[in-house]
Amino acid sequence: MRNLLIAGLLVAGFTLYSCHGSNSSDKYNENEVTSNAETPPPTTIEGKVLTRENSGNTASAATSTGIDVNAKSDSKGVGKFTDANIKVGPGIDAAMAAKGKAVFQTSCTACHTATAQKLIGPGLKGITDIRTPQWIMNMITDPVKMTHNDPVAEALLQQENGVQMTNQNVGDEGAREILEFFRQNDGAK
Question: Taking a C-beta distance cutoff of 8 angstroms, is the pair 159, 61 a contact?
Fold first, then answer.
């Protein structure tokens, strides 16, 4: 019984560290100022120069990579999900969305909200308006691969001061259910 308690505490500590921990040396210096001449203008993943008109936000979230993480991107991300293996219909599958909401509440709410409010990670309201279904599912199922190989995910990691999203092992079906919940949450028809 004692060993089980110790193991449980270690798992809980590791989980909290994974979701909340970051090395203070990874944090940016709030007093550091760079000139616009040294920093290229922020761009979308497609290479278009970002303006207030095409960002969808009045405040730019461009990182030093020059990518605005709030700008719409057509990237599919990096991973096993492609156009061919994701079927997203025009309507919402309410049963799937309900399952996705339960998975989201169990696996994701330690770091994310379904609103625009930032917690540990970004709030996810509107995510389906700016990311493809493939990108979302690739990020859910293999966030480390995404943050190391996808420019938008890398920029998100940088924006979050190096706090890596952890793989919650929800599986392919769970990821698809979460996607359907996000679609419903964002008002998809």
Answer: yes
